[in-house]
Amino acid sequence: MDYIAHYREQDQVAQTVKEHLDGTAKLAERFAAPFQSSELAGLCARMHDMGKYSEAFQKRIRGGKLRPDHSTAGAQALFRQNPKIGKLLAYCVAGHHGGLPDGGDQADTEADTTLAGRLLRKLEPHDAFFAENDLPAIPTQPFALQPASRKSIGFTLSFYIRMLYSCLVDADFLDTERFQSNGTIDREIPSDLELLSHRLDQKLETFGHSGRPIDQKRCAILRDCIDASVHPRGLFSLTVPTGGGKTLSSLAFALRHALKNGLDRVIYVIPYTSIIEQNGAVFSELLGAESVLQHHSNFDFSADDEHGILKKQKLASENWDVPLIVTTNVQFFESLFSNRPSRCRKLHNIANSVILFDEAQMLPTEYLRPCTQAISELVRNYRCTAVLCSATQPALGRFFPPSAIQEICKDTDGLYRFFQRTRMALRGELSNDTLCEELQRLSQVLCIVNTRSHARALYHAVGGSDSFHLSTLMCPIHRKAVIDEIRRRLRAGTDCRVFSTQLIEAGVDVDFPVVYRAMAGIDSLVQSAGRCNREYRHSVGDVFVFEPEPAYQPRSHSLRRPAELARNILQKHPDPLSLETIHTYFTRLYEVSGDDSLDIKDICRKLEASVTAYSFPFSEIARSFELIGQATRPVVIPFDQRAEQLIAKLRSGPPQRDLIRAMQPYTVSVYEPEYRALQADGKLEQPCDGLSILADPEGYHPQTGLILSEGSGGQGIFF
Known about the structure:
- The protein is an alpha/beta fold.
- The strands form 5 sheets. The protein has a 7-stranded parallel β-sheet, sandwiched between helices.
């Protein structure tokens, strides 16, 4: 009998299990080559569908209704062959469809979904596997991993399992796709790093000829990046003041460094989707849209696609098999700690890459230990170079081995003195009335506050057609349109008063002569100053730091603590913009937070406690690792004609993944109490589980966005 793995209905062709195992193994071996694990990845692949040799599965593939377990057989065979190394591999095989399971313990029974439970299951006979396949031997010395310390062995091993798992699930999917499509799906993107580097060099040749001192200094930063690109792989920092051209200089380093060290791709990791849209557009213009994958929630792969570029990029978003990826902290780190096949497919393509962490000060404090440990793993064991880029470089040295971080710029102190184009004054408490009076006297001014309600109150109090509001209650496409209009007015020199939450702080290129900032952490104060006199159009720009009225003080401890720390530090360090002040702030912030607050879900300790029995809680950790901690609910806004068309499709039937992604630019995320209040007021329509539509056209203000009832809560926290 032919043992069938897949059946292609359109031409009634079968793929045998043997063909599928061989094809998957070849791909998995190639994927694991960068971290010297081809043999183990191939072993997992050759065992992953052992259970398809059972009579029960063959009945299923031929039209039966029962769905027998075909993933556990290979896991059991690996464990029987080697209870230690085989158990590590068994996670990958057992979870290749349903996700990496929790390890479980000796009390588990075969009814449990843990690996321990599944290893006890009685399975349908699958002896035919041995008639067509040799049982591969598990190497006695299969890999050479380097834990950062004796206290991180569990983290290192669990990370390695995820990487092998990624190789397996991506190879499994691609081999199945190739068969089911009869090889008609084209994933090839005709671009490579050498071509991208050449295109960037051509653009950079036009820089620095204006004769302006600022442009000459930017060219000096670029030269430092190019000079440093010849260094071997490792962990770097790039400390460049706002306005220093960090984005293109870091990209020049990354492309040249990748070519010098034989790396495969560049991954640009950014905290905010607004910066991704901005940087993604710049990269696409410079390097070609076909070469740049933007993988974030607001990118619409379903837009008009005359040349088929977006279709290929949509496919590439599944496994990041492209030369340049621009993504978010959320997408990057949550994938690294996920247990699901769909999110883990891309992990093996992070290996052998240059990873640029833009605005590194935005690495999530509450998950700082697992995030920095993951970065360390990628550098030590997976041939990666990581670059921490920031104008306000966080004090992360204590989270990495001694002297591990190399600074790229040669004179950071000199750069900060040169780029110091603002003066900062502490104003104490300002009432809303006083604040509004001062803002109304200025023709161009930016006011950044800590809460959405404060931004909205100030906007309505000042009013006028020259005033603009920005907050997360505006859907992304609305915010983008407002930011474009703000930039147009700033360039034209016309009146422009902007009231914003912190979303405008990092990476949004605007240039105001005056900035007001509600008291916040030192990093936020410095980032706010980066929106002031950015292009040296004035001899000096003014940044006024004020204390809001008590009603608008943030309630969130995560916002209050940095502000309190900043107040104390500024009593002894009067210059908030100095490197010394920034370093002192981050050092004390991490000390005050304490180790427990730097890993609030106790992820690192759980992994170390699991190492003795190799019983890793993969599923538990995946559920708990959420960078956006407080649960939110999406509300789709009928903002324009395109949104109305998408909403009509949503009402007509069950939502497809492409439709949900296309709706992201029209979606506002609200906290659970806010959602319940909207629901109670009858303002929401829920055509399907998980998605709601704003049914009341009066519920979205054309300037300030979604209208929430007073007291429903919500801080101006932007991800």
